[in-house]
Design goal:
Number of helices: 9
Strand content: under 5%
Shape: elongated
Length: 199
């Protein structure tokens, strides 16, 4: 009887190899051949699952997104049912920042993908959708009258802090301090810190 092949597992194996290449050697090193060598499989197998570099990059980003969602979900679950909006946002953003070695690898891949889509916008539809959803959620929690613009600013701060953390310009303490200072400004004009129910 022929051996049953777990295609999702193979795709994930190849995507993990792609992520290691991107994180360790940079985006320019990502190719079918290099990823195949890192995964310990043939270039033909890589091409069977990913016809183009765009497809490989998109799948690797999906893996990073899934890991990030798990981290955020777990961190927010520890807050209980009715956290304050400020604590909710602080916890969510801290879970998304590259604050340790495991999250730095994911952050390097995400940053490489952002750089890649800067010159290939057609490869980034999922990023645009994620940005719209995340901005909308943050805006729904902020007390500002112009909450959409404030949410966009907070999201931009998060991305900038991530870049500085990856580049070593900021320590974990400095990045979290900058985040706290910005949240203090956003919530300073709020008459009362209401609670958010997590369903």
């Amino acid at each position: 009887m022929p051996k049953k092949v777990d295609h999702q597992q193979r795709r994930t194996l190849i995507a993990d190899a792609l992520m290691r290449v991107a994180a360790e050697q940079g985006l320019e090193a990502v190719s079918l051949r290099h990823v195949a060598a890192e995964a310990g499989v043939s270039a033909g197998m890589v091409q069977h699952y990913f016809r183009t570099k765009d497809e490989m990059m998109a799948f690797a980003l999906a893996v990073v997104r899934e890991r990030s969602q798990v981290r955020v979900t777990e961190a927010m679950a520890r807050l209980g049912e009715n956290p304050s909006p400020r604590l909710l946002l602080r916890t969510m953003i801290a879970a998304l920042l590259p604050l340790d070695e495991r999250t730095r690898d994911d952050g390097r891949v995400a940053l490489a993908f952002l750089a890649y889509t800067a010159v290939r916008p057609a490869a980034a539809p999922s990023l645009r959708e994620d940005t719209v959803q995340l901005t909308g959620f943050i805006a729904s929690v902020l007390p500002s009258r112009n909450s959409v613009a404030a949410a966009a600013g907070l999201l931009a701060l998060m991305e900038g802090l991530g870049v500085y953390l990856l580049g070593g310009q900021y320590t974990t303490e400095e990045a979290l301090g900058a985040l706290d200072a910005h949240l203090d400004l956003l919530f300073a004009s709020s008459p009362g810190d209401h609670v958010v129910r997590i369903s």
